[in-house]
Design goal:
Protein name: Maleylacetate reductase
Helix content: 40-55%
Bound molecules: nicotinamide-adenine-dinucleotide
Oligomer: single chain
Family: Belongs to the iron-containing alcohol dehydrogenase family.
GO molecular function: alcohol dehydrogenase (NAD+) activity; maleylacetate reductase activity; metal ion binding
CATH architecture of the largest domain: Up-down Bundle
Low-confidence stretches: none
Distance between the termini: 44 Å
Number of helices: 13
Mean pLDDT: 96
Largest sheet: 6 strands, parallel
Radius of gyration: 19 Å
Number of strands: 8
CATH class of the largest domain: Mainly Alpha
Organism: Subtercola boreus
Shape: globular
Number of domains: 2
Strand order of the largest sheet: 1-8-5-4-2-3
Keywords: NAD, Oxidoreductase
């Protein structure tokens, strides 16, 4: 994978395509980012053969099928995915079935561009898997493209990145280098997100946030995620919840549940947040609250009657977790998150 990073780096996208022998790219965006997609197409000249501006959250299989059909009709030799995790996810779904390489141009902090993880949703159920073919061939990180991301999605996407780093710290396949990157990711985002809250147009803070999300995405790609990602995945896929907001609501709850069982991770989180070493869970909860992000599942429209399925679904296929998890534990966590209560064991 080649990576370019820095303000204005998208101007070098055509050179990136040339360096990888790509001459017939299909550009992918969401409907909301179609105009950006058109600008990118213009900058690529005849290296771009078409635009597919219909990416949607959680990659519905019918959208993936339609995009694959269009890529084939155009004779595309690569996907240029310009956007957040949804658009990059569509690129991955295409790559999985067609072997087309992906050039990713991320415009949020979700981190999907750094992982071999794909996801596809049909009939309300989200399937995910790992496959080297979906790892982008090149990534162009240009913080200028994140300047248009509104306040709430910017902050919540940043918390989504922190969640990757936190779970990488206590992953069964964590390693010293990944832990170093995870701690640095949390530190970078701890500095960048409040700066963005104060001034959304602060390009230096945008650059720092994107740096943190690059690190966090690399941690996500290298390790096995735990209880937090599992709960978000089960709730998000089934109830069609906004991805980053769901992470922002759940992270303080799941980390408070896990912190004592993962003392090394708790110490790293505390260092990164610059709080007392025994206050990692409280520190993370107050940091997330201070950002003013979504703080309850109710705010996302979730009703108590809709969440009954989740504890069994989470425990049934839990990836791995530092603390053993029962259905009752998951129920407690989800109920606290539903109401926006303080995380278990955390006091004001
Ligand atoms: P998103 O891609 O769904 O984007 C949310 C909205 O913000 C969209 O309308 C998008 O067009 C818009 N947007 C994005 N960047 C913008 C910008 N700079 N300016 C203005 N608008 C902008 O959100 P996301 O949180 O990045 O991605 C969520 C999806 O990514 C979920 O489906 C999740 O499962 C997936 N994901 C996958 C991985 C992985 O490793 N496979 C990792 C993280 C997230």
């Amino acid at each position: 994978m080649s990576v370019s990073f820095g303000a204005g780096s998208v101007a070098g996208l055509a050179n990136v395509l040339d360096a990888h022998g790509i001459s017939r790219a299909i550009v992918l965006t969401t409907p909301e980012q179609e105009e950006l997609g058109r600008r990118i197409m213009d900058s690529l000249g005849d290296r771009a053969v078409g635009l597919y501006p219909k990416a949607r959250m959680h990659v519905p299989t019918d959208v993936a099928d339609d995009a694959i059909r269009q890529a084939r009709e155009l004779g595309a030799d690569a996907c240029v995915a310009v956007g957040g995790g949804s658009t990059i996810g569509l690129g991955k779904a295409i790559a999985l079935r067609s072997d087309l390489p992906i050039i990713a141009v991320p415009t949020t902090y979700a981190g999907s561009e750094m992982t071999p993880v794909w996801g596809l949703t049909s009939d309300g159920a989200k399937k995910t898997g790992r496959d080297r073919r979906v790892l982008p061939t090149a990534v162009v990180y240009d913080p200028e493209l994140t300047l248009t991301l509104p306040l709430k999605p910017s902050l919540e996407s940043g918390v989504n990145a922190i969640a990757h780093a936190v779970e990488a710290l206590y992953a069964p396949d964590a390693s010293p280098i990944i832990s170093l990157m995870a701690e640095e990711a949390i530190r970078a985002l701890r500095i960048a997100l409040p700066a963005l809250r104060a001034d959304l147009g602060d390009l230096e803070a945008r650059e720092h946030a994107l740096y943190g999300s690059w690190l966090a995405g690399a941690c996500l790609g290298a390790t096995t995620m735990g209880l937090h990602h599992k709960i978000c995945h089960v709730l998000g896929g089934t109830l069609d919840l906004p991805h980053a907001s769901t992470h922002a609501v759940l992270l303080p709850h799941v980390f408070a549940f896990n912190a004592e069982a993962a003392p090394g991770a708790a110490r790293a989180v505390a260092r990164a947040l610059d709080v007392d070493v025994d206050d990692a869970a409280k520190g993370l909860a107050s940091f997330v609250t201070s950002l003013g992000v979504t703080s309850s599942l109710r705010e996302l429209g979730v009703q108590e009657s809709e969440i009954g399925f989740a504890p069994a679904a989470v425990v049934e296929t839990l990836y791995s977790n530092p603390r053993p998890v029962t259905e009752a534990d998951v129920e407690t966590i989800i109920h606290a998150a539903l109401q926006g209560a303080l995380p278990l064991g955390v006091t004001r």
